[in-house]
Every structure is written in structure tokens, then in C-alpha cells.
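We treat protein structure as text, and this decision shapes the records that our systems exchange. The remainder of this section carries one protein's record, kept here as part of the documentation:
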Amino acid sequence: VRTDLAPLAQRCMHRVAAALTGMDGLESDAAVKRFVTQLRTIVAGKTVDWSLDDKQAVIARANAAYDDFWKEFFEPSLSRRKAQVAAARARGEDPVASATDMLTLMVVHREDTWKSDDLLMMREINTFLTASTQSSTTAFVLYVLRLEKWLAEHPEDRALVEKDPAFLRQAAFESLRV
């Protein structure tokens, strides 16, 4: 079996993140591809400052993907969770006992925490999905940019890049902290 490991790993990360958040509708390969494409397009909008493309076009594509994500994945998943929670409560059961994902817990606690705001839930789910699948890539880019800025301001430290692995490790820790 031969495959490109990076897209396979990203696809797996997207599927795991979808399960954790409670996104339904990922039974077919085509749906997973749309899901991943939508998330990547949304991330491009969130990181538009780094884009070499026309920024307004990137933002417009991200907004369209956000709308598509709402319609295809979020809203149907939310409706299903609302029905499940209502059914559990009607049976006199604690809906938390059978909650297996973030969205179900958000629905259970919508009056005390989420203030009946479906858009807030959507933003939180979307943030988790994009951060859990894209943050390592973004963190590395920021690390390199921050390191280059430091080295431009402290040229005497450039030799440490090759001579002192602890310097690069500390720079990575500092970049993550920032």
C-alpha cells in the first residue's frame, strides 16, 4: 500500500475532530472531502494575513465555506442533538449520561452556558475543528517567522541555530507561549 502520509494523517485528524465535536454526515468519502475542504477554506480566511492571494477573495471564499459548513454539517448535527437531548429529558433521563461529543454537551447546557446561541456554538465548534487540525502547521510557521525576527535583531545568536539545539527548543517554547 502506498499513500502520501501527510494528507492521510490530516484526514484522520479531521475525522477524529469531527467525532469529538459531534459533526454528523461524514459517512462517505465525498462528504469527508467536502468537510476537509470547507475547514481548510475557513482556515485560509482566518489566516488571511499570510495569504499571497487577493485577501478579499480569500475572505469571500471563507465566508461561503462557513455558510456551507453550517448548512451541510453543523445545522443537521445540531438538530439531531437537540432532538436527542429533548427525548432523553422526556424519558426522565439525564442527557449528560449519554453525551459523547461537545455539541451534545453544549445543547444540554445551552440555557446556563450557551444562552441559546446557535451561532456561538457554531463558532466554538469551528474553532475547535480548525485548531485541532491546523494549529501545528500554523504554529510552525509562526515559530520560523518569530525566530527569523529574533535573529535579525540579534545576529550574534545565528550561530546557535547550528551549534545549540537547546536554543531552537527554547525558541519553540517561547513561540508557543506567545
